[in-house]
Amino acid sequence: MKKLVLAAALTAAASTAYAGSLAEPVVEAPVVVEEAEGSSSGALLPILLLVIVAAALA
Questions:
Q1: What is the pLDDT of residues 3-58, one digit of tens each?
Q2: Cα dihedral across residues 17, 23, 24, 29: positive or negative
Q3: Phi and psi at residue 29, to the nearest 5°
Q4: For residue 16, what pLDDT is reported?
Q5: Collapsing DSSP states into helix, strand and coil, what is residue 34?
Q6: pLDDT of residue 49
């Protein structure tokens, strides 16, 4: 009986050792996001706001 339990335990332990595959893992390329350049809307809004405030005070 001990030999049967020992054989079952060794068979279960040996089967988990071969569970993996030898194939190379698939690695996806990272996604690169580029920002758009040449947009002047970041500077246009504060200047427009300054002109409006100056016109309201004058």
A1: 888 888 878 776 655 556 667 778 888 888 887 766 555 778 888 888 999 999 87
A2: negative
A3: -70, 145
A4: 56
A5: coil
A6: 87
Enter the pTM of the model.
Answer: 0.31
d(CA 55, CA 9): 88
1 vs 9: CA distance, rounded Å: 12
DSSP 36-54: P----HHHHHHHHHHHHHH
SS3 labels along 16-27: HHCCCCCCCCCC
Half-sphere exposure of 41 (CA within 13 A, CB side): 3
Q: What are phi and psi of 7, to 5 degrees?
A: -65, -40
